[in-house]
Amino acid sequence: MSETRSITTATSSKRAQRLSDQQGRPGGSRGMRVLVTGILVVVAVYFLVPVYWVVIAATKSTEDLFGSNGFLLGSEFSLWSNLHEVLTYDGGIFVRWFGNSVLYAGVGALIATYLAAAGGYALAKYRFRGRNLVFGTILGGVLVPGTATALPLFLLFSQLGLANTYWSVLLPSLVSPFGLFLCRIYADATIDDSLIEAARIDGASELRIFHTVGLKILTPALVTVFLFQLVGIWNNYFLPLVMLSDSTLYPITLGLNNWRSQVDRLPEFYELTTGGALLSIIPLAIAMIVLQRFWRGGLTEGSVK
Amino acid sequence: MSPMTRRQLLAWAAAGGATALLAGCSTPGTVSPNTGPTIAPAAAGERITLTYWAWLKDLQKVADVWNADHPNVQVEAVWIPGGNDGGYQKLYSALAAGGGPDLAQVEMRTLPEFLLVNGLVDLRRYGADEVASRYNETLWNQVSYVDGVYGIPQDSGPMALYYRPDLLDRVGAKAPATWDEWFQVAGAVRDADMYLDCFALDDASWFAAMATQAGASWFRVDGDRWIVDMTDDATLETARFFDRAIDDGVMTTSYSQFSPAWFAAAAKDSIASLAGASWGDALLQGVSGAEGKWRVAPLPRWGSEGYGSTFQGGSTAAVLANSAHPREALEFAVWMTTSDAGIDAMIEHSGIGWSPNDAYIGSRRQQPSEFFGGQNYNEEVFVPAAKEQNNEWQWWPLTQQTFNILADGFRAKASGGTLVDAVVQGQRDVITAFRNKGLRIEAAS
Amino acid sequence: MSALTERPARGVADDPSRSGSQRRRRTSVAAPWMLLGPFLALFVLTFILPIIVAVGSSFVRVSRKGVFGEEGVTTEFAWFSNYAQALENGNFIASIGRMLLFGVVQVTVMIALCTLLALLLESASAKWPGFFRAVYFLPYGIPGVIATILWSFLYVPGLSPIIDIAGAMGIELDFLGAGTVLWSIANIVTWTYTGYNMMIVVAQLKAIPGEVYEAAKVDGAGPFRVAASIQLPLIRPALILTTVFSIIGTLQLFAEPQVLQTVSPAIDNEYTPNLSAYTTAFAYNDYNVAAAQAVLIAVVAFALSFIFLRLTSRRAS
Questions:
Q1: What is the tens place of the pLDDT at every residue in A211-259?
Q2: Do C166 and C93 fall within a single domain?
Q3: Is there a domain that residue C224 lies in?
Q4: C148-190: pLDDT as tens digits
Q5: Nearest of B155, B154, B28 to residue B93 by alpha carbon
Q6: Is A74 helix (H, G, I), strand (E, B) or coil?
Q7: Range B48-157+312-387: architecture per CATH
Q8: Percentage with pLDDT > 70 across chain C
Q9: Does residue C83 lie in a domain region?
Q10: In which domain, by residue range, is C16 found?
Q11: What is the DSSP string of B159-181?
Q12: Where would you tag: which of A86, B69, B318, B404 has the fewest CB atoms within 10 A of its CB?
């Protein structure tokens, strides 16, 4: 019952959604409204403080950074010159770092989602020997911290000659045990065996069925897995730190930290760091704001049972 | 074939592959580059590119001066974070992965550590003996180990006292000539709500420099083992002195030199002096509003014993184990550190601490400095200081670990420990660390 | 042996969801493996093999002869000496203890906060829920390194407007001292992940059918009663999920302390277990001991998550 309800909620119109949200929800008096909204506003301020700070800081020169109060504008407004510096320093390496992040995270998440979907579908819709063993092992992989595998993976890749290459960061990013777990649960809950049987009777091959029927139904879960993996890879710091020594391969996290570590010796790096931090936040911030509605579906489909 | 046996086969294959892989997975850094035949120089007319990883600023501009005159040997500089801030990690991991640059900036104190992982080329095999005379004797000693030379001294850090005469005037003091005088001035300065200097609880290298000045020599080689003496009188006296300074509140421990909080405090006139190395002059210029306010005086002495100055930091250009062109790399390093053009370029672009060539300190350094209010501080203070250093000091193979061990002990100062205890316990922990690596070591007493 | 090889054939034949032909039976057996194949291959490469390498490496040690190791290096089997060395290392043990303390406090606070926010956002008293959801979710998109860089500027005296403002009011704040820096790190982690965890809870809250609320209203239950008796129990699966991830995340803490190290003297090179393993491998060149540490960290993480899942599932049944 709950599964059909969840699917219905995910596909109904937005207005009906909001109405059904509000219906029967607890609370509602005027006093409560003010109180609740007040709390939410205070919490929002907490979450926005560093973002506000970096916007202001990126407009300042290093002297102003030390001289003026962090929440107020300084004596000069150097935002454009700072940003220009960021984009052109060292032959535009910032842009390169950004491109690297997009490669690792975008391409990585895309392929990871596809592989996780294939695996989850296979585990959900087929009965075969070793199925539980495989699923159990992969589930164990969810519980093992990625950082514990990064070091030995580095030793392994060094032997294979893969260390300090794009592959050294890309390959581990293509594996998402949690993604497979999600897809399996979702496939279990939403893909009807009868649909598959029908397709089989029509003469379609198993792989064809997966691509045409399975993937389509799995789409909400796919979006969730993609976003989860995208953010995970984008934020990953330890793996590239261990694997990469060539700075042209760095993702933006490593690159910015590289600049920040130079502030002690060369104060002009303060401007590069604040400007760079601002530029790196903007795209993902926008992405998060726009995409947060997609987190609604898929994540807990199986658990509500 | 039924799935079961096929899977069995797969399992065996995987296990077999893994075992093979495991057998092949040797620990990195266990093969020496100095045992085989030497690598021949590049053929005449062959174009090669040398990579040089360093944290010097604008090193490429220095390299370009060489590149203009040497079309067949081009040098490419790559910036890495400061050694102890992640630079050495990068170098070690590059070496472990079988790669790495031709040249790297390795501090004097870290050369033995690289030796331990077979990371350096012995430059005597490529002609380093011929250039030995061009270098300051103390520095050359610090790059020579076990009949080999493993780095070309690039800069060093003779120490002196940078100070603010205007702030000292407020309390009627002059630049102190001995550490005891320093203590008194520190007290007076504290009364005026400023600090004379700060003590770094997280970086023991400054403390080591002070102990060196007092006459300490922590490690020496005796045959096939190390003798460690961190609890000698010189070191313990130094520790007691700074224990008192911190306990009496005349030295602050909330930040270390050249940290962001230090820059902020200096800009607000809360710091009256800095016992620092020659490379600190470039960093001092990053303090906002400091132009013309600082001067340089010789480092205070430890009474009548000890040395006139000491050293902190100081790097070499070392040739790394996986380099394909060690001979050419050596040539470039020697050019950079002894020729007039090279030294001038380094000072102008990279702001190196101090030239390793006794005969030439760089044309810029021979002039009075505007920033320091017209004082010709290099000729006046640093040239003599470079000659008064402790020649007995020797570096050992576990420097990063040793300094971390000491720093851990120093941190306990915040919760009631003492620097003396830190040094005593530190010696014990260092002995354990050496033995864990399989090296032989004894305590001196 | 032979009994095992025969059983799958019998099972496939008896399975009602499979019909007839030999060809379909064979492709049904190959198909799941083809679909799983790429994932499994990469999984073996990036999870299984490194674990094997780590375990193998941790039982080997390197011995050096001569003062600088110049007289030769030998690799030998080391039984458990690497593990003993790792466990004797006071810093490593301290780092694990520190993370347990950190985890207990920070995870509890963060889960409580995200649940509270989710409940508030989903209640009828909230205005502009979409806007607030977006704002709370925003920090999740900021990588931990960059978040730490930003917060570090807000922690350093002389740069921090917060310290300036507090100073003007006469309050002395020290975010980077020995006693406070751990909680400053906790603040960064909470700031980054609360929104994300909140979204998971919100998703689960949205799945609660409206009739349940109607029934509660008929029974005369007020908002707090509804929260306690209806919403909290129903969002339990989401809370369990977020807690397990937070536990795993706590043991992985690396970027935040490493970045703050340069501004806080109180953070040593082995402050967290991961930092300790990294320092051991790349600063001390003790790859074998670092492998032992990595294995220990993985085992602890696994054990904690497993125990937690067991506890919560036992209580459910």
A1: 888 888 888 888 888 988 988 898 889 899 988 888 889 999 999 988 8
A2: yes
A3: yes
A4: 999 998 998 878 888 888 888 888 888 888 889 999 999 999 9
A5: B28
A6: coil
A7: 3-Layer(aba) Sandwich (3.40)
A8: 90
A9: no
A10: 2-58
A11: EEEEE-HHHHHHTT----SBHHH
A12: B69
Chain centre to alpha carbon of residue C210: 34
DSSP state at residue B37 = P
Q: A179-206: per-residue pLDDT in tens?
A: 998 888 888 888 888 888 888 888 888 8
Nearest CA in chain B to A165: B97
pLDDT tens, position by position, B365-401:
777 888 888 888 888 888 888 888 887 888 888 888 8
Picking from C58, C73, C105, the residue at the C-terminal end of a domain is C58
Q: Hey, what domains does chain A have and what are their CATH numbers?
A: 90-301 (1.10.3720.10)
Element spanning C170, H or E: none
Whether B339 contacts chain C with CB within 8 A: no
A71, C161 Cβ separation under 8 angstroms: yes
- Spatial distance between the Cα atoms of C317 and C312, rounded to a whole number of angstroms: 9
Rounded Cα–Cα distance for residues A15 and A4 (Å): 20
**Is C76 domain-assigned?**
no
- Whether B55 has its CB under 8 Å from any CB of chain A: the answer is yes
Of C40, C58, C76, which marks where a domain is finished? C58
pLDDT for position B353: 64
> Is A294 in the C-facing interface, judged by CB distances under 8 Å?
no
Nearest to C252 among A29, A146, A260 (CB): A146
Residue C107, pLDDT above cutoff 50: yes
Helical residues (DSSP H) of B41-199, grouped into ranges? 59-69, 87-96, 111-116, 137-143, 165-170, 179-191
Residue A150: list chain C partners with CB under 8 A: 50
C181 and C283 share one domain? yes
Is the domain of C121 the same as that of C182?
Answer: yes
At position C221, the amino acid (one-letter code) is: A
Structure token pair of residue C162? 């917060």
Mean pLDDT by 10 residues, chain B (445 residues): 55 58 60 81 86 87 92 89 81 84 92 89 90 84 86 88 92 92 93 92 91 92 89 94 93 87 88 90 82 92 86 89 91 90 84 68 74 84 84 86 91 88 94 89 88
Tokens of A285: 């911030």
Distance CA A235, CA A229 (A): 10
- Check C68 against B96: CB less than 8 A apart: no
Distance CA B105, CA A46 (A): 43
The helix-helix angle for B399-411 and B205-213 (nearest 10°) equals 100
C189 shares a domain with C304 = yes
Nearest to C146 among A146, A281, A299 (CB): A281
Rounded to an integer, what distance in angstroms lies between the CA atom of residue B118 and that of residue B111?
Answer: 11
CATH assignment of the domain containing C185: 1.10.3720.10
C52 and C126, same structural domain? Answer: no
Residue among C266, C292, C265, C290 nearest C279 (CA): C290
The structural domain count of chain C equals 2
Name A192's Cβ contacts closer than 8 Å, sequence gap at least 6: none
Contact C125 A33 (CB under 8 A): yes
* Rounded mean pLDDT, C217-246: 83
Instruction: Choose the closest CB to C31 out of A21, A207, A280.
Output: A207
Q: Do C26 and C131 fall within a single domain? A: no
Neighbours of chain B (3+ CB pairs under 8 A): A, C
Q: Is residue C66 part of a domain?
A: no
Which of B391, B393, B392, B386 lies closest to B159 in space, CA to CA?
B386
Inter-chain touch A66–B97, beta carbons under 8 Å: no
Three-state secondary structure readout of C37-94: HHHHHHHHHHHHHHHHHHHHHHCEEEEECCCCCCCCEEEEECCCHHHHHHHHCHHHHH
